[in-house]
Amino acid sequence: MDTSPTILFYGHDELLLMTRRRILEGAGFRAGVTSQMMEIPRLVRELPADLVVLCHSLSRTECVAAALVAKNHRPDVRMLLMVADGFFLERDYAMSEVADDIFTLSLEPENLVAKVRSMLKDQPQGRVMLFPEEAQMRGSRLARTS
Description:
CATH superfamily: Response regulator
Helix content: 40-55%
Structural class: alpha/beta
Largest sheet: 5 strands, parallel
Strand content: 15-25%
Distance between the termini: 34 Å
Strand order of the largest sheet: 2-1-3-4-5
């Protein structure tokens, strides 16, 4: 059984998804791709995904929805948001609440590999609260816990 970490890419551009898949597979990871939100729950569980990468081709709303769906089905999955330079402000509040980290696109494939390796080694600093009932208990604000 292959115990390599598994990465799931979600986005709209199939060519970009396949390219990123090949890059990570070449670096020794297992990788899955989808352009369909409805496939995320199954893939997160069945792969099982250690990291979900949200492509810059998604809208902010799609990123938030995908993160909620993925975390609902696998609460410990890590989330990486890929952004085009200037597309999202790096410290955008809503995105910082759903993504464990943000990665600005780079032309060098080794930068993506390095970011993925770094995220899989790092332990989360605090659990990101994503579920509405948790937010309500904290006074209607999403909050990080230690």
